[in-house]
Batch of 4 targets.
Target 1
Amino acid sequence: MTFIDLVFTFFAGMLLLAGLGVISSRNPVHSVLFLVLSFFSCSALWLLLEAEFLAIVLVLVYVGAVMVLFLFVVMMLDINITQMRQGFVRYLPIGALIALVTVAQMVWVVGPFGPEIFSGEQLNQAVKHGADYSNTKEIGGVLYTDYVFPFEIASVILLVAIVAAIALTMRRREMTKYQTPGKQVKVRKQDRLRVIKMDAESAE
């Protein structure tokens, strides 16, 4: 076993343990921290695969922005953990079935009985590139040529999700005050200003 195999085994084990910690931790803050650890482990695995751009994006975007936002939201919300745990046992068989199906698919793909393209020596041969190789250029070339149509569909779906989130957030509530620009423009001086006449007072 080479040093690369030891590093891969270490980070892969950390990824599995962190994933188990996400779903088994009773504290939501601990679950978020376990998820951050799993992202770091994934970025290390991508570095081993010479996908430096994806590894950096995973750390900067997900760990540096998304997960910090999740952590702030979880810490600011008053979450009733007891109420959340009431339905855990009820949905446990469904979750276990989905987990078994996922593991079976992974074993079928990368296992000894998997397809020919994933079996044999082809699975253990890492692709080596020169010093002038650009991982970002290769990803952009594939993303905007072969997968440009799925990329556009994903962008439209994300746009619809953003609009839906804004629409759900900006719902009118009875106890909330809103500004009406049309009424503000029509306001006259007589409606807002009242002049009161008072007798002058002498300072003694």
Note: Residues 52-76 form the longest helix (25 residues).
Target 2
Amino acid sequence: MTGPLENLDAVVNGLLGEVDTIASIEELDAREPALAGRRSPLAALQKSLGGLDPDARRDAGARLQAARARVEAAIGDCRRRLAAAERDRLLEADRLDLGDVVTSTVPDTLRAGHPGLVARTQAELEDVFVAMGFRVAEGPEVESDWYNFEALNIPPAHPARGMWDTFYVDLGEPETVVLRTHTSPTQVHLMETAVRDGSLPIHSVMPGRCYRRDTPDARHLAAFHQVEGLVVDRGITFADLAGVIETFTRAYFGTDVETRLRPSYFPFTEPSAEFEITCQICHGTGCRTCSHTGWIELGGCGMLDPAVLEAVGIDPDEWSGFAFGFGIDRCAQMRHEIADMRALTENDARFLEQFS
């Protein structure tokens, strides 16, 4: 057969032979345009059909498309074969022979584990507050709506609930059981126990994990750690609260850190304030972590609202108190000058080894 496609079979066989020699996906990607793309011999033959009469061009086109289909099918088979080989190689590289592990000797470089940075920070904070005369208390991470909200002067549909985007648990009636959004429910448990046992006054801190539907960023995590403090006694004033916060920040961060209280609102305290320290990343000059303000909010505080005391059966005319709460993760971030809090949860060995 003469004409533009007289060597078509030889061209196809040559292309199929080239496909068989390809040894990697990367090589296949690099050579595919020359095998079946615009730079291929088949593309050149396609251009040569323009001078044929319509019937001959139609027959030649059909032959050429069938030849192209053979080459593309061979390329597809080659890609699947190479992908399977690469997958097998990776699986073999990751294979763990437990028999080898059991019978092998322990390497000299094996080291014991150590508490994570957040756990270590929590222990350090507990030591600071115990030295100040506080006791450490714990509470459940799953709470009823009453303990997490209502007993803290946040009734259903109260707009303040928007401050704590909440994870609800599928137990009981809808939206009655939550992953606690703060450790404040433990304060309610403590006050109830003190009323029942007659063990007032209370001087306690409550560390633990909390959950909010926050979008993770440089200063926030959806699952985070918080420590709260509660004092209920006779004659407690806002000056006592300010003194505790000042003593804590200087004991933990050092005497050169600056602190400030700014008026704020919390449903369970009145008056309320947020307490801030100078950003330990930029030392007050302004950076991405502190939103270029020079200050980092550690948490909130205030005098206990009488409604909270009354909810647990404490007479607000006889007793008063204050509460405060701040993030353990935030303290670790500032103490160790970590620009992005998400590093605490990424399990990067290079990061973790800095705190061994």
Note: The mean pLDDT is 86.
Target 3
Amino acid sequence: MKFISIQKALDKKKGKVSIRGWIYRERKLKDKVFLVIRDYSDIVQCIIKKDKVSEKIWNDANKLLIESSLEVEGEIYKDKRAPTGYEINVKKLNVVDFAEKFPITKDQSTEFLADNRHLWLRSRKMTAILKVRSTVFGAIHEYFRKEGFYEYQSPIFQAVQCEGGSTLFHVDYFGKKDVFLAQTWQLYAEPAIFSLEKIYTIAPSFRAEKSKTSRHLTEYWHAEMEVAWGSFDDIINYGESLIKYMVKKVLEKNKKELEILGRDIKKLEPTVKKKFPRITYDEVLKLLEKKFKMRIPWGKDLRTIEEDKLGSLFDLPIAVTRYPKKVKAFYMKEPGDSDPKKPVVNGVDFIAPEGYGELIGGSERESDINKIIKRLKEEGENIKEYKFYLDTRKYGSVPHGGFGLGVERVLAWICGLDSIKDAIPFPRTMLRYKP
């Protein structure tokens, strides 16, 4: 047999086909057996008629359980009653492996599916998500490379914190305790812009956040970029363009997968077609008070509830800028027109619509070494540990900036998922580190 994918068999519409895959559904009658077979591409219904096949094929067909692997040959034809509109009348059948009784059935609990994640990956839902995930990763690489960026990697083992010491995963590094898993590549990326100028990466990041929400992971994939000579507006423009590019690619390549997931693509189209709104932190506070009677004290960071309320006012991501200096990282640049009584930074967060929260966090980087040292001291950091980073400001410092994008956050939003945990093959959370 020369095998083709189920999708190619469906596209052929009629005639002899040979396919292989796994049993997705099975129904046994007195004189016929119905098998719905799946592969990576789609599903198709097959019918085995007792009076049309050998005794061995008939006996094998009656022993088959869900997830058994097999090869079939037969005639495909149109049948509106079949799940995908076509059926294969089986002439030959070769069982590769008779599966045991599959533990996953309908209406299983979330925890049960998490415990059996290695098997749940076979579901149509997870297969669809993983295909969208592949498209998104490919789109990130395509976007940055067409913009002239070089791919660059930084270490996973690090000795300086960048995003807050409370979320560090410390590791025993040959007896040394002041080593932890990367929260971000940033402090090790900035030195490279003085060589390559435009760089990006997609790599895992780790945050020891004691959070059990549907939008947090302790290990996630981080798409980050850093660019020399970049203004704050440049950073925002790159962020908007990247999100648009990812969504555009998914709409081009994964309409079938979005349909399987029940995602309304009309909710994604404004992202591609419209310019993202850009509003300042001060304007956000006014909007929240006007629309929701929420009075947020100036200087307080936006929580999940405020981001969700804000996102509900728009049908596409929005860029929130000029956050209070005290709620942002030490490396973010304070603009020249910042009010000394209410200092802000050139930082930006892209907030998704529909309650999916922050997709991107970025900023223009502070180039003044003295201001960086002051902020580090205020945060109680050991300046000696940052010598390699501070050296970048001593030898030809230039304006620059960058951002980080949480790939699973973007996937959860694009796919319309209830939980970010479904946006990654094996989620790691505060309560789960296996399988």
Note: The mean pLDDT is 95.
Target 4
Amino acid sequence: MKYLVSASEMRRYDSNTIEKIGIPACVLMERAALAAVEAAEAHCAGLKGRKSVLIMAGVGNNGGDGLAAARLLSEKGYAVEVWCMGNPEKASGQWKQQRAILENYPVEFSQRPAMPRYTVLIDALFGVGLSRELSGEYGEAVGIFNCLEGWKLALDLPSGIDSDTGKVRGWAVKADKTVTFGFCKKGLMLYPGYEYAGEIVTVDIGISERCFLGEAPDIYAYDEEPGALMPKRDSGGNKGTFGKVLLAAGSMNMAGAAVLAARAAYRAGAGMVKVVTAAENRTIVQQAVPEALFGTWECLAQDMEWADVIAVGPGLGKGDTAGRVLEQVIRESGKPLLVDADGLNLLSENAELKSLLARQAEAGRALVLTPHVGELARLTGKTVAECKEDLPGTGRGLAELFHGVVAAKDARTFICGENHAFCMNLSGNCGMATAGSGDVLAGMIAALLAQGMEAFEAAAVGAYIHGMAGDRVSAEKGPYACMAWDIAEAAGG
């Protein structure tokens, strides 16, 4: 697991490290500079001749990191040029100290870059300190920096990228690599910031979890091997031990979503899966997933008694039968429930069922909702643009309304719950934007719930292993060829 911090959290942790733990600011800056130099040297390894370095430095502490890196690179024989931006009279104390030290080193200072090409270009303009749009001389400087030839390294995050949202604030540096200090900034993992950062490396400079002082970051992400997160298997267990999933899915002659969810549930470890759907789907379901049990809507009540977990919605449609199915799984059962796809669209149109489900969840029924941004908009009454503007906040608002867990799905999925830190899913790729991918995710989460996982963890781990499976498929077949069936099959890999 790793933490993803906001700018305000990072400033607080930096301050705690200096003022309460007692590590001097100059030590942190030196370690940051050493990390920058290590990255530059790794790039230059094997290159012949004297290497040239341009450092674009602001007058804050990010610029101070750049000045310290200039000194260290100069000591190693690099030809270093520093392009300073900003008023030195308003510089931070650490910057002024580093600038004074550089008077004793053969480092060139320039008003504009002296050459069209450098071996390494280091962006130390703003870091997390940016609080406005980049325009005027700063916007022009970033434009010039981007046009210069050479390998580009950003310190902490590319200047011009909002450290909280990942948005481009006017202009932004397009880096080949970003070395970020202490903890990864959440804007580096959100789009388009992620695409501007290049390779992202988080380095330890002495700001550790010790500096939280009881105030941990509000967002974390998994980065473990998927197998380490899966439920432990009882070596003496049987198919009943590993959970029974009921999928109320599909509609007349439309069985694809039910098939994908069923296969995914098995691949994610469920012991038994029963697909309850229209009778017309019997043949295709039994041929495509021979391991699955089959039931029809007429037997839904007794099948709910059999199940450990119910998932409703994939491919269900929005007709009268679908509405009755959704109402039945809400009114007639208290089993853990996952609502996906058409189930969410039907729920958004039925205020009475929304209220009932919220009361059930408040009373203890485990509930997971898995909306993409369109479904999230319908459930919350917001526009898609408003949901995208603050996906975690919108997801948490819905989680609080329903007293459940919400997997708010987009290019980055956020798992949201009441009084719970957000889990941002970092696995997955654009190839997974394909029909049926959401049905696969629903089946995986349902399987983890059936194996005894708590609802928030099941949603978070399910999203992670779903994305990792998609990454395996994309690596093997390419993002253009990625299909939901492949993702389901890769889930057990």
Note: The chain has a mean pLDDT of 96.
